[in-house]
Amino acid sequence: RLVLTHAQKVHHEQIILRHYEAQLGRPLNREERAARVADAAHRHGITRRTAQHLVQRATELSAPVLEAVRGTRLDTVNGLELLASMKTDAARLQRIEREQQREDGQRSRRDASRQAASWIQEILDRGLGRQEIAQIAQILPLTTLAHLREALTSEPVGGPENARA
């Protein structure tokens, strides 16, 4: 079984719905829609309620929104529910863009923290004197304890299971 993101599942459901609607020449009626929900639940191994949301999102969200959300923190059941609650695709795309900017900012802060921890390690490796302690005092606020521990122990943040390849 492929591991699909929620946006990919919704996109696939859109393709299936379009196929059936093209064959019928009309939107699905209540019974046909219930059959789609049951099939989606079985196919994805999810509850009927979750499948019902999946089919509903397939009718509410456009392909450009699903493409833009892929890989972001909004690519979840709750994230797509939030986007579906918005009135227009423009509002949805703006929300996705804000989320991407937020993620980029967090990534930048993590990178800066790791760099500061690395500098502290270099200073400690040279030996501690008055000047080195002053340098550490200036750099220390730029890093987190987790990144400092990672730099000093060569163990990644989150423990050995998060080791980088």
Task: Write up what this structure looks like.
The structure is a single chain. By secondary structure, the protein is mainly α. Helices cover 72% and strands 0% of the residues. The protein contains 8 helices and no strands. It has helices at 6-24, 30-44, 48-60, 63-69, 77-84, 89-126, 130-139, 145-153. The radius of gyration is 24 Å and the shape is elongated. The model has no long low-confidence stretch (mean pLDDT 84).
Structure summarized in a few sentences:
With 165 residues, this protein is mostly helical. Helix content is 72%, strand content 0%.
Helix and strand arrangement:
Elements: H1 6-24, H2 30-44, H3 48-60, H4 63-69, H5 77-84, H6 89-126, H7 130-139, H8 145-153
Helix pairs in contact: 1-3, 1-4, 2-3, 3-5, 4-6, 6-7, 6-8
Instruction: Tell me the β content.
Output: under 5%
The pLDDT mean sits at 84
Main β sheet profile: none
Which stretches are poorly predicted, pLDDT < 50 over at least 5 residues?
none
How many alpha or pi helices? 8
Tell me the overall shape. elongated
User: Which series of helices and strands comes N to C?
Assistant: HHHHHHHH
What percent of the residues sit in helical stretches (DSSP H or I)?
over 70%
Number of strands: 0
Which structural class do the helices and strands define? mainly alpha
Q: What is the alpha-carbon Rg in Å?
A: 24 Å
Distance between the termini: 25 Å
